[in-house]
Specification:
Elements: H1 9-23, H2 37-67, H3 72-94, H4 101-130, H5 133-145
Helix pairs in contact: 1-2, 1-4, 2-3, 2-4, 3-4
The protein binds fe (ii) ion (FE2) (2 copies).
Length: about 150
């Protein structure tokens, strides 16, 4: 299989955390991020449309059905994560309106950071805890067939 085409959660999360660092209040300047609030907002909306939208879709429509029903805790965590996706979607739309950009960018950065941390530190470890080694392997293989990188490899 050509691993280049695999959807990589870890890769996207790394990019998301970098973005959060660059748009939160008091962030340090960076080569890739525009200096003005308007520029930052446009960059963030583009990042959302080009990376996050697809990432959220795959988490909700590929990963979630795979783990649905295996534990009430995982179902509850996923319900919370989907709500967070919707809040981030709304905020991305709101960033197109050029007012209160400093507050909105700060909020977007903090929400995204917290969301990714919940997935990495709570959701993924929980899935690993609940599923046996054998089931995890099978899950990874099914995800792989759908073009989804093994999220438990790292
Ligand atoms: Fe997510
Ligand atoms: Fe994610």
């Amino acid at each position: 299989m050509n691993t280049k085409n695999l959807f990589s959660i870890a890769h996207d999360h790394f990019h998301g955390l970098m973005l959060a660092q660059m748009i939160k209040r008091g962030s340090t300047t960076s080569d890739v991020m525009p200096v003005t609030l308007e520029g930052k907002a446009k960059y963030t909306v583009r990042f959302f449309e080009q990376e996050l939208e697809n990432h959220f879709y795959l988490e909700e429509h590929v990963l979630q059905p795979e783990v649905k029903g295996i534990s009430p805790e995982i179902d509850a965590i996923f319900a919370k994560l989907v709500k967070e996706h919707n809040n981030i979607r709304k905020l991305a739309k709101d960033l197109k309106i050029e007012e209160d950009l400093e507050d909105k960018l700060d909020l977007f950065g903090r929400m995204l950071e917290e969301h990714i941390t919940t997935e990495e530190k709570i959701l993924f470890p929980k899935i690993q805890e609940v599923l046996s080694e054998h089931d995890l392997q099978q899950l990874a293989e099914r995800l792989n067939k759908k073009g989804y990188e093994n999220i438990f490899r790292y």
